[in-house]
Each structure stands twice: as C-alpha cells, then as structure tokens.
Amino acid sequence: MIEARGIHKYFGGSHVLRGIDATIARGEVAALMGSSGSGKSTFLRCLNRIEEPSQGDVLIEGTVITDLRTDVNRVRADIGMVFQEYNLFPHMTVLENVALGLIYVRRRPRSEAQETAADALKRVGLADHVTKHPQQLSGGQQQRVAIARSLAMRPKAILFDEPTSALDPEMVNEVLEVMRTLAEEGMTMVVVSHEIGFLRKAADQLIMLDAGQVVERGPTARVLDEPEHERTREFLRAIR
Questions:
Q1: Fewer CB within 10 Å of terminal CB in the chain, N or C?
Q2: Element of type H or E holding 113
C-alpha cells in the first residue's frame, strides 16, 4: 500500500531524515517511535507530501506520488491525516466540519455529503453531537471528529501524528479505542505514538527512529519485549 524509498529531508543545513525506507502493507498498522526531533512527524508528512522529500520516493499502491507530475491534491484526498491539534472550524457544526471535504474535494452534493458525514460520526460514537460546535465538545470528542472527517473521505490509509498528545489523560482512551476499532476493521494506518498498550494491541510493525534514521524495525511485540538496538532499549526504559 505505502512504500518509502530512501527518504531524505533537509531544512536549510539540517539533515532531518537520512535515507528512510519503509513498507506498509494493505490493512497493516505501522507505528513510528522515537524521541523528540528524531524525524517521526517529518517522515509521516512526507508520506502524503505535506512535506516534500528532498530526495527519495514515496509510492502509494505503486504510484510514485513524489513525481511532480502527480496530482498531490488527489493523493491527499486518498490518504487521511489526523494531527495533534484538531483543526476544526469553530463556526461550523460538527456535521459541517466532517462534510466539508466531501463537498469541496470529492464534489459530492451537500445532502449526500452530510449523510456520509453522519455515518462517519456514528462510527466514532458521536451520532448525538452532530449539531454541536467544536467548542461544546471535550478534547477527546474533538479528536474523534477529526478522525471522522478523515473516515468520511473513505481513504485508502490514515496517518496519525501523535493524535493523543494534546489530550488530558482521561480522554486518551476514547481516541485510542476508535483507532483500535479501525485497525480491527483493516484500515491501513501509520501512527506516531508512544502509547505502549495501544501499540502492543494494534500495531503490526514498529519502526524506531533516531536522528533521522531507522535504528530498529520489526514485529511490535518483538521490538517492545526484545529490542536489539541499545537506543531502542534506552528509549523504552525512559517512557515506561
């Protein structure tokens, strides 16, 4: 489904990504882990060209999306993105926020878009909140709206950039539960997260980054329980 080949990224004189390779199969959940500044979020954003790689290629279902001739807007419509912040429009209702991309990107009639949006909100447990505005919801509920917004577009995959890091601890589980359900349903996902319990249950492979390089990768249980690289062992000791 998703393949990264030799991804490098420079910001001025800073070499942030140093030749990252990754392969994520259809229906697989891949987790990116590493300390702040290791390149996790930058790599994730390169997968749908929110960040342009300085070197290397990203392929989605065999299509080289880093080819400048590729329609990047079409690519982004097919690869959902959920950020740390919810990025909801405060003047719109929850339903309007979720329907927006369907109307203006997918070109769906408003009535059809709202019906699809309502179904997506039901999937994340927010069917009773469609007429509310974002400021009337908790942080966890707002993040679930953001997930519903991605789901409504019927994406091929969803990228999650530390989706629970801005939440109060008691709100984390409600978002992780939605993500676990998506994993069980076969959604292809790439997740930046340090929620070990979630990763153990939902992630098929774990990729450990350090200083812009992959230092370890493998089945999640193996990396968590029997890490081979000292940097991985140090990091896991620090977050447990």
A1: C
A2: helix 110-123
70 has pLDDT over 90:
no
- Tokens 């390149």 belong to which residue? 39
pLDDT at site 221: 96
- pLDDT tens digit sequence for 211-228: 999 999 999 999 999 999
The whole-angstrom distance between residue 205's C-alpha and the CA centroid of its chain comes to 15
2-239 placed in CATH 3.40.50.300 = yes
Q: Give the CA distances from residue 59 to residues 23, 24, 64, in Å, rounded to whole numbers and listed in that order.
A: 9, 10, 4
Q: What is the pLDDT of residues 5-23, one digit of tens each?
A: 999 999 999 999 999 999 9
CA–CA separation, 132 vs 62, rounded Å?
41
Strand partners, 157: 79, 188
pLDDT in tens, 74-87: 888 889 999 988 89
- The CB density around residue 55, as the number of other CB atoms within 10 Å, is 13
For residue 240, is pLDDT > 90? no
Task: Tell me which amino acid residue 117 is.
Answer: A
Q: Is 19 helix (H, G, I), strand (E, B) or coil?
A: strand
34 and 12 Cβ atoms separated by less than 8 Å: no
- Look up residue 173 and give its amino acid: N
Compute the residue count for the chain: 240
Say what the pLDDT of residue 19 is: 97
CB contact at 8 A, 53 and 212: no
CA-wise closest residue to 26 among 189, 199, 192, 221 = 189
User: What's the distance, CA 181 to chain centroid?
Assistant: 15
Q: Nearest-CA neighbor of 29 among 144, 199, 197?
A: 199
